[in-house]
Write a structure and sequence with these properties.
Blueprint: H1 4-13, E1 18-22, H2 26-38, E2 43-47, H3 49-55, H4 57-70, E3 75-82, H5 85-94, E4 98-101, H6 108-125, E5 130-135, E6 144-145, H7 162-172, E7 176-179, E8 187-188, H8 198-208, E9 212-214, H9 222-231, E10 233-238, H10 240-256, H11 263-266, H12 268-285
Parallel strand pairs: 1-2, 1-10, 2-3, 3-4, 4-5, 5-7, 6-8, 9-10
Bound molecules: zinc ion.
Length: about 290
C-alpha cells in the first residue's frame, strides 16, 4: 500500500488531487469511505480540534486504521488545523498519520519557530507522520457565511508569496504547505467564493518544493478546482459542503420517519448523502467522468 506522501506525490504527478474530507462521527466516516471505495481512490479523513474532541482523538485514529487494515485501503487520518503544540503532539501520540500545525495567525517568525519545534518532535517520535504548515490567513470557520472572514488574505498583495513559501519550507522542514491563494474557509451564502489565483499557485509550488494543499474547497467553482489542481494543488480539503449534505438529509429523513427511534434507520440517508457529495468532488479532483 502506498504511504500518505506517496499518494499525494503520485496524484500530483498525474495532474489530479487527493480528496480530504472532515468527520466528527462514524456516519460521516462511512459516507466518505464508501465514496472512495466505489471510485477506487485513496482518501484522507480530517478532524479539526472541535471535531476530534467530539469523536475522540484516539478513537478517530483507531477507526481509520481499522478501515485501512480490514479493507487494505489507502485511507489516512489528518489532524486538521491544530493551533497549539500541545494538541499537535497529542495527535501524533494517539496515532494520526498527518498533522496540520496552523500558525497562520502568528507572525512569520513565530510561525516558523513553532512549526519547526513541532517538526522536530515528529521526527524524533514518529518520523512517518506528515506535517503540514500554514502560511497566510484564510479564516477558521466551516460554515455558511454572509461575508468574507475578517483579515483573510484574498488580494494578490496579501496572498502567500513564493519567497515566503520557500523560506518557510526550508526553515521548518514541513512535508506539505497550505498557502493563501484567494481561498477562504467556509462557504459564501451568495454561492460564490473568491476566485483562486492559479498563477500564484504554480509559482508557489515551484518555490515551496513540497506538495501544496488547498483549504476552503467548499464553494469553489468546478473550473477553479480543475485549474488549481493543474497548477499544483496536490490535495483539496472539503468540509462545509458535506456538513450541509449531512444535515439536509437528516432533516428530511426525520420528517419522513417521525416515529422512528433507531438511529441506524433514520441516519442511513445522511450517510448516503455524504457518499454522493464526496463522490462528486472526487470525480472532479480525479478527472473522472461523472
Ligand atoms: Zn482548512
Amino acid at each position: 500500500m502506498q504511504t500518505a506522501i506517496e499518494i499525494i506525490k503520485d496524484a500530483e504527478s498525474r495532474g489530479v488531487a487527493v480528496g480530504h474530507f472532515n468527520i466528527s462521527n462514524t456516519e460521516q466516516l462511512w459516507g466518505i469511505f464508501n465514496a472512495a471505495r466505489s471510485l477506487e481512490l485513496p482518501i484522507f479523513i480530517g478532524t479539526s480540534e472541535g471535531e476530534r474532541a467530539f469523536i475522540g482523538p484516539r478513537q478517530a485514529a483507531v477507526l481509520v486504521q481499522s478501515l485501512r487494515e480490514q479493507f487494505n485501503w489507502p485511507i489516512y487520518l489528518n489532524a486538521d488545523h491544530t493551533y497549539s503544540l500541545e494538541k499537535a503532539k497529542e495527535a501524533v501520540d494517539v496515532g494520526y498519520d498527518c498533522v496540520i500545525f496552523d500558525g497562520a495567525q502568528l507572525s512569520m517568525e513565530e510561525n516558523i519557530a513553532q512549526t519547526k519545534e513541532f517538526v522536530s518532535y515528529v521526527r524524533e517520535t514518529r518520523p512517518e507522520v506528515l506535517v503540514e504548515g500554514e502560511l497566510g490567513y484564510i479564516g477558521t470557520s466551516s460554515s455558511m457565511m454572509d461575508e468574507l472572514p475578517e483579515g483573510a488574505a484574498v488580494t494578490r498583495e496579501e496572498m502567500t508569496s513564493p519567497e515566503e513559501a520557500q523560506r518557510f519550507v526550508e526553515e521548518t522542514g514541513v512535508d506539505l504547505l497550505a498557502p493563501a491563494v484567494g481561498n477562504v474557509h467556509g462557504m459564501m451564502e451568495s454561492g460564490r467564493n473568491p476566485n483562486l489565483d492559479t498563477e500564484r499557485i504554480s509559482a508557489l509550488r515551484e518555490a515551496a518544493g513540497v506538495p501544496l494543499v488547498l483549504h476552503g474547497g467548499s464553494g469553489v467553482s468546478d473550473e477553479d478546482f480543475v485549474s488549481s489542481i493543474e497548477a499544483g494543488m496536490g490535495m483539496v480539503h472539503i468540509n462545509t459542503e458535506i456538513r450541509v449534505a449531512f444535515r439536509e438529509a437528516l432533516e428530511q429523513s426525520l420528517q419522513e420517519k417521525p416515529d422512528e427511534i433507531a438511529p441506524y434507520k433514520y441516519m442511513d440517508q445522511a450517510v448516503d448523502a455524504v457518499t454522493e457529495s464526496v463522490a462528486n468532488r472526487l470525480k472532479l479532483f480525479n478527472k473522472l467522468d461523472s
